[in-house]
Structure to design on (140 residues):
């Protein structure tokens, strides 16, 4: 019978290697984040709803240039107290930017934006001439 040496810490070291590998890959993707969004519409307006939890209102920029609406935001990296290490970081941080070409028939002069509970809502009303309307038929 042969004896096999047993290292009780081998699995712990393997876990630490995988943990470190995951952190290295994670650190590379922290430069930007993707914010999920919805675009909804009805007869009166089109609305863009963007999830931006943890983003300060002052860190959000909305620009309109010709027919292109651009939304940009920055979520700051977490500040850790001295002698504190991040062991797991799944909340993304960094820059976010999306651009949309607005379709015809919207009134870009009346765009409104509201930020509440981590959700940015941009409402773009339809232009009066673009709204559906009934045409009366007259008889002569």
């Amino acid at each position: 019978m042969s004896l096999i040496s047993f290292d009780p810490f081998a699995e712990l070291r393997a876990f630490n290697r995988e943990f470190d590998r995951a952190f290295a890959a994670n650190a590379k993707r922290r430069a930007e984040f993707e914010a999920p969004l919805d675009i909804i519409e009805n007869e009166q307006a089109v609305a863009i709803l963007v999830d931006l939890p943890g983003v300060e209102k002052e860190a959000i920029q909305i620009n309109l240039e010709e027919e292109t609406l651009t939304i940009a935001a920055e979520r700051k990296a977490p500040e850790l107290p001295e002698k504190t290490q991040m062991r797991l970081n799944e909340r993304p941080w960094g820059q976010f930017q999306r651009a949309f070409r607005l379709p015809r028939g919207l009134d870009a002069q009346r765009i409104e934006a509201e930020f509440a509970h981590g959700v940015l809502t941009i409402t773009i009303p339809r232009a009066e001439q673009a709204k559906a309307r009934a045409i009366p038929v007259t008889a002569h």
